[in-house]
Amino acid sequence: MKLNVPMPVKMVLLVLGTTAFYMYLGQIVPQKEVHPPPPVLIDPGMTTEDLIEVGRELVNGRGICMDCHNDVRAPAFDGVGARASSRIEGLSDIEYLAQSLYDPDAFLVPGFAQGMQKMNEPPISFSDEEMKAVVAWLQSQGGTATVTLETDLGY
Amino acid sequence: MSAINLPLVLALLAAAGLMVWRRANTFTWLLFTWLSLWAFFKFGLTVPIPQSVVTIYVGIMTLAVVSYASSSRERLSETVQPIVRLIVEPRFRLLLAALLIGLPALAAYNVYADMSAPLEAPGFGREIHPAPPPEITVHDETVNMTTADNPYLHLHEDDPAAWEEHLESGRRVYYENCFWCHGDGMGGDGMFAHGLNPVPSNFNDVGTLPALQSSFVHWRIAKGGPGLPDGGTPWDSAMPAWEKFLTTEEMWDVNLFIYEFNDFEPRALGQH
Amino acid sequence: MSRNKILFGIGVLAFIAVIVTVRLGGFLVDNEYRQPERQVAVEEAAGEAEATPRQQGIADEQAADEAEARARPYVEAEYRTVPFVGSRVTVWVLAQLHLLFAAFVLAVPIFAFIIEFIGYVTGEKRYDRLAYEFTKLLSVSFSMTATFGAFLTFALIILYPKFTNYLMHIFSPTFLPYVLLFFLEALFLYSYYYGWGKFGPKMHLFLGFMLNVVGTAIMFIANAWLTFMMSPGKREDVDGDGVPDFVSAVSESGALLSLRDAFFNFTWMPINIHRIIANVAFGGSIAAAYAAFRYLQAKNDEDKAHFDWMGYVGNFVAIIAFLPLPFAGYYLAAEIYAYSQTLGIQMMGSTFSWLFVIQAALIGNLFLGANYYLWLGMGRIEGTVHFQKFIKWLLIAIAICFAVWATPRYAISSVSEIAAMGGSSHPQLSYLGQMSAKNTAVNILILSTYMSFLLYRRTGRTSIHPHRQLLTRAQAIVFSTAAMLVIFFGVYGYQVDAATRIRFAIPQVYSVLAAMVVITVIDLPLYRNARQAAQTHWGKMPAISQYALIFIALSFTWLMGLMGYVRSGLRGEWHVYGVVLDTSPDAYTPTLGFATQVVSVTVLIFFGLIGVVFWLSSLGGKKAYEPQAAADADGQLEGA
Question: Which of C392, C412, C427 has the CB atom closest to B52's CB atom?
Answer without folding.
Answer: C412
